[in-house]
Amino acid sequence: MKSQRDKNMTDVVFKRTSKVNTISTDTLQQPGTYYWSVRSIYSPGIISDSTITGPNAFNVDKRQFALSRPEPLDPGQVTAEKPFILNWKGVQGAKSYRIEIASDADFTMGKMTKESANTFVKISDKPPIGKYYWRVNAVKGDKTSEWSEVALFSVTEAVQISAIYPSPGTVLYEKPETVNFSWSDPNRGDRYLFELSERNDFRSIKESLETGSSNVKIKNPGIGIYFWRVKLKDDSGKIITQSQPAEFTIPQDMKIPVLISPKENAKIATGFRKRLRLEWEKIPGVTQYEVEIFQRIAGVDKSFTIYTAKKNFIEISNQMFSRPGQFSWLVKAKKIKGGRVTAFRESKKSFFEIEGMELLPAPKIKTPPVLFNVK
User: Fold this and answer.
1) What class, spelled out in words, does domain 66-156 have in CATH?
2) CATH number for the domain formed by residue range(s) 259-354
3) Which of 91, 98, 149, 170 pairs as cysteine with 166 (C-beta 3.0–4.6 A)?
4) Residue 91: which of 146, 141, 28 has the closest Cα?
5) Buried b vs exposed e over 296-322: b needs ≥16 C-beta within 10 Å?
6) Tell me: the pLDDT tens digits for 286-317?
7) Which residues partner with 276 through β-bridges?
8) Strand positions, DSSP E, 174-219
9) Alpha carbons 139 and 56: distance in angstroms, whole number
10) pTM of the model as a whole
11) Is the pLDDT of residue 62 over 70?
């Protein structure tokens, strides 16, 4: 591909070879009319005419700096107590930018002026709650660009942080080696204080960490009931807002429930019984058992139903298993105190199969046409 400044294609300013049908360049700095043409190049051994397409004309119009305009990017909702950042798309050739913030769109009331050598500026001042307008222009020596379009942002009170995981009331049955805490902050903060305590009033802190992200990972603190919270800080270390305490439990281990009936891989014909009995060994100290039954569908065990029981067995109507199929079940033993699961253990999963039954036709009774009374 060739690009020239004259129609006769003698003043070559750009030339490039490409294996695809597009090219790009930033070397055409001078405004004016250019002409371009394309010639096909074939691999050695291929006999073909050297086809030339063009010349075709195009214009390069170099935009004047004074007519360029930065483009504000929406900062969203910002918090009064927390510094925030205004961003914009820059202008080529700009050395710095001037930013104006005001409480009216005409920029006559409460105007604040900032300067930045980057395409962003940090606003550390603490403006009152309300709605604000802002604009930006580019500076290059003694030249300035046009002002950008006027953009809007709102300053609000800090919003409370919400705990995501562990959410309030979570029981960590699996007892992971590390616990990953995460939270949601509508204020979009970047300085948090994480606190973990065994008391809901946080008079004693078991673990305390500072982080710039909305999650933190700590080593499993061990068996017990815990409370955690997150505080958002400003640059001076002042607490802006915090989450409500979230409670979670890491329970003690209990004896593993041993499943008794049905036996592993048992085949059951429900037509001969009205109810199916699931039974397991009784565990000392259990407050409640949870029985979960799964059905195998397309090779995957999917949860079918869940029962709770205080005794070490349940009886289920055979109508629950009206169709043949493969099933499995397990038992979760729980010790509950004060509404909290303080001890827990889960059995292994056991499998059984519900068989279909072939119904035979009802017997037919035939009465003889003549009955003889033989003495």
Assistant:
1) mainly beta
2) 2.60.40.10
3) 170
4) 146
5) eeeeeeeebeeeebeebebebebeebe
6) 999 999 999 999 999 999 999 999 999 999 88
7) 316
8) 178-184, 192-197, 207-211, 215-219
9) 37
10) 0.55
11) no
